[in-house]
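This part of the workshop introduces the protein records we will be handling. Getting from the letters to the tokens is the skill we practise here. The record below serves as our worked example for the rest of this section.

…
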Amino acid sequence: MCDETFTQESELDCHLQTHTVENPYKCNQCDNTFTQKSDLDNHLKTHTRENPYQCSNCDQVFLDNYELLRHMKIHTDKNSYLCRQCDKTFKNKSNLDIHKRVHTGVKPYQCSQCDKTFTQ
């Protein structure tokens, strides 16, 4: 049905909606459509390269405060889990295990609409 690929199961879930749900919010810069206005608003920032939330501990920037706060836990969590292949750190072991699929290529999830496989 399509050639989309994703790294997270949540992205796959959102993708599946594009096969079945009408997307009333359309980007006036490209062909993307969205089920929620907030998703469109966040998407529009990608066209302006607007990343207003910057981490004070590193040079990463984020589109919204939620993502920044989630990222900040990497710097403050003393029990971070480190990926030995790329030095990324994770708050818990399950997130590290999911991340490792990027390096191994394991894709255990399959889209029921288009047979694509995904790591999460």
